[in-house]
Automatic annotation (TrEMBL), chain A:
Gene Ontology CC: anaphase-promoting complex
Annotated InterPro entries: RING-box_E3_Ubiquitin_Ligase, RING-H2_APC11, Znf_RING, Znf_RING/FYVE/PHD
Name of the molecule in the record: Anaphase-promoting complex subunit 11
CDD domains, A to Z: RING-H2_APC11 (cd16456)
Associated pathway: Protein modification; protein ubiquitination
Assembly: The mammalian APC/C is composed at least of 14 distinct subunits ANAPC1, ANAPC2, CDC27/APC3, ANAPC4, ANAPC5, CDC16/APC6, ANAPC7, CDC23/APC8, ANAPC10, ANAPC11, CDC26/APC12, ANAPC13, ANAPC15 and ANAPC16 that assemble into a complex of at least 19 chains with a combined molecular mass of around 1.2 MDa; APC/C interacts with FZR1 and FBXO5. Interacts with the cullin domain of ANAPC2. Interacts with UBE2D2.
Family named by the database record: Belongs to the RING-box family.
Cellular localisation: Nucleus
Alphabetized PROSITE patterns for the sequence: ZF_RING_2 (PS50089)
UniProtKB/TrEMBL annotation, chain B:
Domain Cullin family profile residues, every copy: 473-669
Gene Ontology BP terms: cell division; metaphase/anaphase transition of mitotic cell cycle; protein K11-linked ubiquitination; ubiquitin-dependent protein catabolic process
Species lineage: Eukaryota, Metazoa, Ecdysozoa, Arthropoda, Hexapoda
Region (Disordered): 434-465
Name this polypeptide is given: Anaphase-promoting complex subunit 2
Any one GO molecular-function label of the UniProt entry: ubiquitin protein ligase binding
Similarity field: Belongs to the cullin family.
Top-rank taxon: Eukaryota
UniProt xrefs under SUPFAM superfamilies: Cullin homology domain, Winged helix' DNA-binding domain
UniProt keywords, alphabetically: Cell cycle, Cell division, Mitosis, Ubl conjugation pathway
A matching Pfam family: ANAPC2
Cellular component annotations (GO), alphabetically ordered: anaphase-promoting complex
Length: 84, 791
């Protein structure tokens, strides 16, 4: 007997490759979306800082905008720089 | 000397009196009667001048009464008591009434003379509360008759009136359908004698005669009233039953009223208006009272008719409801009748009982219950627009539905079902969903004039507004009191559908989702929206990955497409494990790499048990093409390397539970590719010999996997959600030692339930959860409080 697979439709779930499950700012899952968004994934991406912490982009932007002088990572208080 | 003269005078006078009133003299007074001569008027004047008129009157009346009691009445009743069944009825009753009438007639002259005496003396006094002597006489007759009432007299009167009513009805019918010649009928329908000897005419005559006589004596009501009433009631009941049989699509009120007016009232008025003989004093007065009696009777009978009709309809109400849109006339009838009768309570009880016996037991399918419930909602809404009736009657149905496991699933399925489904129709009407906990709106001040109070049996804790406005879908959702359950169930259903069809075509689902959004609100169905978008995105990603040559997907031996889901928004998947063949896994890994390149920082975790596979299977003598699930594909894949494998072996290679493998392998048995050669040992069938083919059907276990859901059941999900609270509860009990249920819930609400993902927890649910923990010995329950076991 010989079995030949002609096509395979699989089911998978996607997830972010990050060092945590939840966003440190909104405490919601990375794989979900920030409180202001409706759709996860492309519409509500993650960003990494040079300190290796990551957040929902909308969350960290909100945080940075609320900081008057120094832009610090809310987790480690280092200066916040986006990882290239 | 004067005394003697006086005595002589009195003796003379007595003779005259006796002459006037023969009833006073007895047999031995014969000589007195003979030599009495003289003018009546003179005698009367003498009596009056002696001042004896009162005494005479009293004597005469006394004598009449004695005669009545001693002779006439016993003779009358005698007719009733000794006659046996065969000859009673018409003849018996007629004879009795005739003889009574005759003997009473003999007394009439006496009364007339007495009346004359009264006029001469110009005296008027009441005897037995009646001014006129004739009335007094009638009172006496009635009193004597009643004082000697035998027990069984009604049987005879009833017989009599039944026969006459039948004759009457028959003649009525004859008038209406004369052209229908019925020559083959030998018996007359009226008197049940042969047609040639039909006595209908004579019966009717006798009937009128008797009624006339009784009416004159004012005895009709007393003697036959009861019988008449019961008979007519029975007749009405029969007629109503006959009319209502089976047909709910015609309104009967009109025809029933006409029937009452023409047939029944016609008969009654003939009874009451027949005859006018000597006993009647004033024609006008009598006919006036007859008219009054008739109209009074008509009112009572009409009420009775309505009541009977209503009762009959109430008995049939369950069937009426089941057939609802067709049975609208019956419902409308019932609505009108309920306004005229006081049978609401009866209706509620009856219908509830009918529902309980016919609907609310394990033998009925949930979809059927739901259909009946929807029909009931519609029918009862028509019956009682205020919705109170609906609320009370369907209470047990709702309770029962809450108890059934598959209710939610059934509702959701029928909501989104294709084809003619009432609920789907209802859904597409698209109104916003209203729940019970709607805040009472301000009373509409513009319409205050049309305001009506709620019926007495209304539940005062609910606003009439909420009862009136809630529609069918809201009613169904309200069975559980929360939208969440329905939304979750819909989510599971949607997930199942999307993952089983796997064709990326979501147009239909989007349409339903839009309709549901109108009902349940955007926020509740947000998750479902993401799910549909996942499918849409997956399609795009697949095309993109396959079209871009950088990803090397085209060089693979078979094409891989994927459904890429956002796990957070989908229901929990069943935790089934499956190890795919390495060959396949490599392909999947390539796909994952392609995905990772496309979307930086994201990766895929495959759900190996989900999806579908298209296979070509080449055997020695045939080639088959099949589309199967991954687990089926894996099973048959492993038979390539080895012709015989046991369940245990497969289970180890595939990392799947043996029971699952055992269940899935039946599919290949039914396809005739595998054959069980020993317990749990299977062999590949390379050549389909006749032996195997004949062997197949008996062994095949029906493959029921189509109905299997890839999702964890709603209950399992719920359990998982509650599990989140367990750590809170343990913390609470560690600090506070012991707590009652209410306090635990309160604490949970204060601390644990305030997150962004609010989960509703009811007291019952929590009790359930904690009770299970008690059963698992993780908790102690003693004296109404929960505590942790001492470890």
């Amino acid at each position: 007997m010989k079995v030949t697979i002609k096509s395979w439709t699989g089911v998978a779930t996607w997830r972010w490759v990050a060092n945590d499950d939840t966003c440190g700012i909104c405490r919601l899952a990375f794989d979900g979306c920030c409180p202001d968004c409706k759709l996860p994934g492309d519409d509500c991406p993650l960003v990494w800082g040079q300190c290796s912490h990551c957040f929902h982009i909308h969350c960290i932007m909100k945080w940075l905008n609320s900081q008057p002088v120094h832009h610090q990572c809310p987790m480690c208080r280092q200066e916040w720089k986006f990882k290239e | 000397m004067g005394d003697v003269e006086n005595q002589q005078d009195l003796n003379d006078l007595w003779k005259y009196v006796c002459h006037l009133f023969p009833i006073l003299c007895h047999e031995n007074d014969d000589e007195n009667r003979q030599d009495c001569t003289g003018d009546e008027l003179n005698i009367m004047q003498r009596i009056v001048s002696e001042g004896q008129e009162a005494l005479v009157e009293e004597l005469v009346l006394n004598e009449i009464e004695t005669k009545l009691r001693r002779d006439i009445v016993p003779t009358f009743w005698h007719h009733f008591s000794d006659s046996d069944v065969t000859i009673r009825g018409l003849e018996g009753f007629k004879g009795a009434v005739d003889s009574l009438y005759d003997s009473l007639s003999t007394l009439v002259p006496l009364l007339q003379t007495l009346e004359l005496l009264r006029q001469t003396a110009q005296s008027a006094r009441e005897v037995y509360g009646q001014l006129s002597l004739m009335e007094t006489f009638k009172v006496m007759v009635r009193a004597s008759l009643h004082s000697q009432l035998p027990l069984n007299y009604q049987a005879i009167t009833e017989d009599f009136y039944r026969i006459s009513f039948r004759v009457f009805c028959n003649s009525e019918n004859k008038e209406t359908d004369q052209n229908e010649s019925a020559e083959d009928i030998v018996q007359c329908a009226g008197c049940s004698l042969e047609i040639e000897f039909c006595q209908c005419q004579s019966i009717i005559e006798a009937f009128h005669d008797i009624n006339g006589k009784l009416q004159e004596l004012d005895l009709l009501e007393r003697l036959a009233g009861d019988v008449l009433t019961t008979m007519i009631h029975k007749r009405i009941e029969n007629h109503v039953q006959e009319t209502c049989k089976g047909s709910f699509d015609v309104s009967h009120i009109g025809s029933l009223e006409v029937w009452l007016d023409t047939v029944v009232m016609g008969w009654l008025s003939r009874i009451y208006s027949s005859g006018s003989f000597g006993f009647r004093e004033s024609e006008n007065k009598a006919s006036l009272s007859t008219g009054e009696t008739l109209s009074k009777m008509k009112q009572t009978l009409r009420h009775f008719l309505y009541e009977t009709y209503t009762r009959t309809r109430i008995d049939q109400l369950f069937n009426i409801i089941i057939e609802y849109p067709d049975s609208e006339p019956a419902v409308e009838d019932l609505r009108i009748c309920l306004l005229k009768t006081d049978l609401r309570q009866h209706l509620t009880l009856k219908l509830q009982r009918a529902l309980e016996t016919r609907l609310l037991h394990p033998g009925v399918n949930t979809p059927d219950i739901l259909t009946a419930y929807v029909a009931a909602i519609r029918a009862l809404r028509t019956l009682d627009p205020s919705g109170v009736l609906l609320d009370t009657v369907t209470q047990p149905v709702r309770q029962y539905l809450r108890w059934r496991d598959d209710t939610v699933r059934c509702v959701v399925t029928s909501l989104t079902e294709e084809g003619p489904s009432e609920l789907a129709e209802e859904l597409s009407r698209g109104e916003a969903l209203q729940l019970d906990d709607l805040t009472p709106s301000e009373e509409d001040t513009k319409n205050w004039e049309t305001w009506n109070p709620d019926p007495v049996d209304a539940d005062p804790s609910k606003t009439s507004q909420s009862r009136r406005t809630s529609d069918i879908i809201s009613m169904l959702v309200n069975v559980y009191g929360s939208k969440d359950l329905f939304v979750n169930e819909y989510r599971t259903l949607l997930a199942d559908r999307l993952l089983s069809s796997l064709n990326y075509n979501t147009d239909k689902e989007i349409r339903y989702l839009e309709l549901l959004k109108l009902r349940f609100g955007e926020s509740q169905l947000h998750y479902c929206e993401v799910m549909l978008k996942d499918i849409y995105d997956s399609k795009r990603i697949n095309t993109h990955l396959h079209s871009d040559t950088n990803f090397n997907l085209d060089n693979q031996e078979f094409a891989i497409t994927a459904m890429i889901l956002s796990a957070q928004f989908w229901p929990h998947f069943n935790k089934e494990t499956l190890e795919l063949p390495e060959f396949v896994q490599e392909h999947l890994n390539t796909y994952t790499k392609a995905f990772e390149t496309l979307k930086g920082n994201r990766t895929l975790s495959w759900k190996p048990q989900l999806g579908s596979v298209n296979l070509d299977i080449e055997l020695k003598d045939r080639k088959i093409n099949l589309t199967v699930s991954p687990i089926h594909a894996t099973i048959i894949w492993h038979f390539q390397t080895k012709n015989q494998r046991s369940i245990e072996e497969l289970s180890q290679i595939m990392h799947a539970p043996a029971t699952l493998v055992r269940r899935k392998i039946t599919y290949w048995q039914s396809q005739g590719l595998l054959h069980e050669i020993g317990p749990d040992l299977f062999e590949l069938v390379e050549e389909s010999g006749p032996r195997v083919k004949g062997h197949i059907p008996s062994e095949i276990v029906c493959d029921d996997e189509e109905t299997e859901s890839a999702m964890a059941s709603a209950q399992e999900q719920r359990e998982e959600e509650l599990q989140v609270f367990w750590s809170y509860i343990v913390g609470m009990l560690t600090n506070l030692d012991s707590m009652p249920l209410e306090r635990i819930l309160q604490m949970l609400k204060m601390f644990a339930l305030q997150g962004p993902t609010t989960i509703e927890v009811g007291l019952q649910e929590l009790r359930h959860f904690l009770d299970r923990k008690v059963a698992e010995e993780k908790l102690l329950f003693y004296g109404g409080v929960y505590r942790l076991p001492k470890s």
